[in-house]
Amino acid sequence: MRSLIVAVGLIVIAAPASAQALNRGNQELQTNCAGDAIAFCSGIDPNSPQMDACFKKNMSQMSANCRRAIDAYKAGGGK
Fold first, then answer.
1. Separation between Cα atoms, residue 68 and residue 72, nearest integer Å
2. Which of 1, 4, 63, 66 is most buried, with most CB under 10 Å away?
3. Are the C-beta atoms of residues 46 and 13 closer than 8 Å to each other?
4. HEC profile for the chain?
5. In 3-40, which positions are buried (b, 16+ CB within 10 angstroms) versus exposed (e)?
6. What's the pTM value of the predicted model, to 2 decimals?
7. Which residues contact 69 (CB under 8 A, 6 or more apart)?
8. In 3D, which of 12, 43, 46 has the Cα closest to residue 29?
């Protein structure tokens, strides 16, 4: 679960405004979780344990589409 949360955080926060490179996740996570990451975890380094904690803390508030994307990513091995 931790790697999934990190992957989602990396995807969403690594937007054009960020200088961080994306190295995990998939397009579905980028598309469906970007708004949630900005709303709940703005300003957190996507490569940090704090991003993991933020996604875990706010998972119940994430959009249904983001939660579905996370579930699909996890079911696919999360790699």
1. 6
2. 66
3. yes
4. CHHHHHHHHHHHHCCCCCCCCCCCCCHHHHHHHHHHHHHHHCCCCCCCHHHHHHHHHHHHHCCHHHHHHHHHHHHCCCC
5. ebbbbbbbbbbbeeeeeeeeebbbebbbebbbebbeeb
6. 0.65
7. 8, 28, 29, 31, 32, 33
8. 12
Region of 43 on the Ramachandran plot (φ > 0 left; ψ -120 to 50 alpha; else beta): left
Amino acid at 6: V
Per residue in 21-73, pLDDT (tens digit) is 444 568 888 889 889 989 999 998 876 778 778 888 999 999 999 999 888 98
Q: Which two tokens stand for residue 53?
A: 């904690």
